[in-house]
TrEMBL record:
One GO biological process term: L-methylmalonyl-CoA metabolic process
VOC domain: residues covered: 8-136
SUPFAM superfamilies reported for this sequence: Glyoxalase/Bleomycin resistance protein/Dihydroxybiphenyl dioxygenase
Record-stated family: Belongs to the methylmalonyl-CoA epimerase family.
Organism: freshwater metagenome
Keyword terms: Metal-binding
InterPro entries in alphabetical order: Glyas_Bleomycin-R_OHBP_Dase (IPR029068), MeMalonyl-CoA_epimerase (IPR017515), MMCE/EMCE_epimerase (IPR051785), VOC_core (IPR037523)
Gene Ontology MF terms in the entry: metal ion binding; methylmalonyl-CoA epimerase activity
Entry protein name: Unannotated protein
Length: 136
């Protein structure tokens, strides 16, 4: 049997139109506070990370109309965008997923927010779920 390559859930990403309104809602509803906020120019998004135990709720809003998050909101509306799985070795996890039949969006790991290394896997071949592999 193979060794487990996922170490924990890194984040659940939720696409929103108005980041400040979403942050305010999570603050009022759950008492959640922003642990980290960053614009990721390469992905055309601004994120706010709300810490929940050792994981995050990641609120994402597009910073440009051609970003994948803008397209997702236009197509499906606001809501669940992807799941981020924490891994020890992003390149090894990506290779393992490809070997299992996954369709990579990123052909190789790349820089992510908070100084992480990430790779995205297309929902096709992953049971309809956009997956982000996250190495801290």
């Amino acid at each position: 049997m193979r060794a487990m390559i996922l170490t924990e859930i890194d984040h659940v990403a939720i696409a929103v139109k108005d980041l400040d309104a979403a942050i305010d809602y999570y603050r009022r509803a759950f008492g959640a506070e922003v642990d980290h906020r960053e614009v990721v120019e390469s992905d055309g998004v601004e994120e706010a990370l709300l810490k929940v135990a050792e994981s995050y709720v990641q609120l994402l809003t597009p910073t440009r109309d051609d970003s994948p998050v803008a397209k997702a909101i236009e197509k499906r509306g606001e809501g669940l965008h992807h799941i981020g799985y924490r891994v020890k070795d992003c390149a090894a996890a990506l290779a393992s997923m490809i070997a299992a039949g996954a369709t990579p969006i990123d052909k190789a790991p790349r820089p992510g927010s908070r100084g992480t290394t990430v790779a995205f896997i297309h929902p096709k071949g992953s049971y309809g779920t956009l997956i982000e592999l996250v190495q801290e």
